[in-house]
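Lab meeting notes turned into a lecture example. A postdoc, R.K., suggested we walk through two folding results consecutively so the class can see how the record format repeats. The first protein's sequence and structure tokens come next.
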Amino acid sequence: MGTKRHKPEDVVAKLRQADVLIAQGQSVADVIRVPDLWNAIRQALAYFTAEDCRNSLTAAGYETDLAVAT
């Protein structure tokens, strides 16, 4: 049985749901147990290349040698 593929909109909805739950006072430990949240995150990360990650980390102020995504 394969893993369900989430559309990008579904991934964003799951992350927003997690934000709302945290804002309502739920602990992060409880929120990370939201069904399919980690699968959605894993699939979202697959959309980014190593170069995308490196550029994002560099733009966020991390040193280039720390932003190696290999």
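The second example is placed directly after the first for contrast:
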Amino acid sequence: MARIAVVYSGISFQHQTMNMPEFRGRFDIIDIYDLPRTDLSAYDGVIFPRSTDQAFMATCRQQIEDYLNMPGIVVALGDYWQQWLPGCTYGGFTPEDDEPLSKVADHPILEGISSDDLHWHKGINGLCCHGHLEAPEGANVLIRNDRGDCILYEDHSSTKGIVVAGSQFDVFCHTFSNDSGAKRALTNMLNWIGEEGPRLRAKRKQKPIAVAYSGLHFQHNIFTRPDYVDDFELLPMCSMETTDLLKYRVLVIPRESNQEVLYRMKPQIRQFLNEGRTIVSFGEMVVPWLPEMTWQKRPVTVKYDSNDPSTWDKGRVQTEDLRIVEEDHALFQGITLDDMKWHFHGVFNPLPGQRSLLCDGEPERAVILLDESNFDGKLMVMTLDPEEHAGFGEVTITMNFLNKCIEWIREEADRIGKELHS
């Protein structure tokens, strides 16, 4: 059975229509201001009624595009003017928008609906005009006004999913006003998503590795490169708390992730590990969000002669005490200690069952720490940040080690996948 969401902006007619007995239970209701924290991958289709907060939707543009490319279905109705929907362009207002309209193509949403059924403001033209749209290239226009402007279209071209956008096609408000044509159209819309949604869902590819994404440039730059896009998925930090993490096999936490959100998610993080999954975390831990981990701050010591500024090398820091503890570990095969010699952000103090793989002088000051004992899964933490410097795009010294980290992460994802399907 398809799962459908209707985004609710608190408008009276939206409330009344969504709570009609014949529609109750056919969709989930999402408060619009909860949208950024909502995992839309749980839905086959998402509907935005007229009077959706357009200014707010402009802040959700990327979320909607990502959802459509899963692929998914988005239906957007009513006045549209903030360019948040891929391929959709506002076309302005003209008196013909609120005059008799013409059904120009068949579609399941319009089954049993005539052109006459689409003129919902008979006798009061112009009082409730919601404009028209410019359909993107390749779209199938379903309804036009007498001037030929697009009122409703279906678009399979702008994204991997399906967009249905309609301006004057205000089915929620006119269902509330007891218009039989509008109610039939809304029922058809739900039925169509119910049939089309599962077909699209079957095309979705679940990427095995999630990257906690705080909207930072270096995170986006590195993990959206062609080498990563097939198996790494950016998971927006704002929606992590409401996302089912167990659909992923490995969770990567880059440096400069939101520590407060991660702290609130500590029970979910522990559950993820106890379900046999793997977490790899880069950078410091200033808030104790990692279970069974103790972090200690250590200042970065830059090497230069204060009496001779010309000797200063911005890339050289104090790393003489850095040493590999477990040289046989897969993380270090094919690289040398020099591939890990740049600044690191504190150390972890190993607890019973945890192994120091790379340390600052003594194993008790772990720069890379692996815990395979306290959970059913694995937790690897390091205060090195190869992904950050590689993502900035100017420093290449960290790439060799980052490639080894990515290789290990992918091996973990493959191992967990085999275990889950055995």
